[in-house]
Design a protein that fits this description.
The chain has strands at 2-6, 9-11, 17-24, 32-38, 45-50, 57-59, 67-72, 77-82, 91-98, 104-106, 110-114. It has 116 residues and is an all-beta fold.
Length: 116
């Protein structure tokens, strides 16, 4: 099983980034996919989640209206479009695949830094 995140980097406040997570080794279309983030000194938190077929999404209040999660089951990839970025969005962003509460996988994370 592999989840490989990409697309992180340094961006100015107000800018945009698009994260990607390429999955392999499991039946991607059967898993809910999420993006979590962890800022320095803070707990890991859910940023956005999308159900296995893409029919439902939910977002943390702090990112609602600025971030959009999507998936392409044909490409085994989940995306996080991040707009109007703020310094407080600075964190390591992790991709998560969840079949149920017992079976889930994590990527290695990608750093997002929002700074002028």
């Amino acid at each position: 099983v592999q989840l490989v995140e990409s697309g992180g980097g340094l961006v100015h406040p107000g800018g945009s980034l698009r994260l990607s997570c390429a999955a392999s080794g499991f039946t991607f279309s059967s898993y809910d996919m999420s993006w979590y983030r962890q800022a320095p000194g803070k707990k890991r938190e859910l940023a956005a989640r999308i159900t296995s077929r893409g029919g439902s999404t939910n977002y943390a209040d702090s990112v609602k209206g600025r971030f959009t999660i999507s998936r392409d089951n044909a490409k085994n990839t989940v995306y996080l479009q991040m707009d109007s970025l703020k310094p407080e969005d600075t964190a390591v962003y992790y991709c998560n695949a969840a079949y149920n509460i017992y079976l889930h996988y994590w990527g290695q994370g990608t750093q997002v830094t929002v700074s002028s």
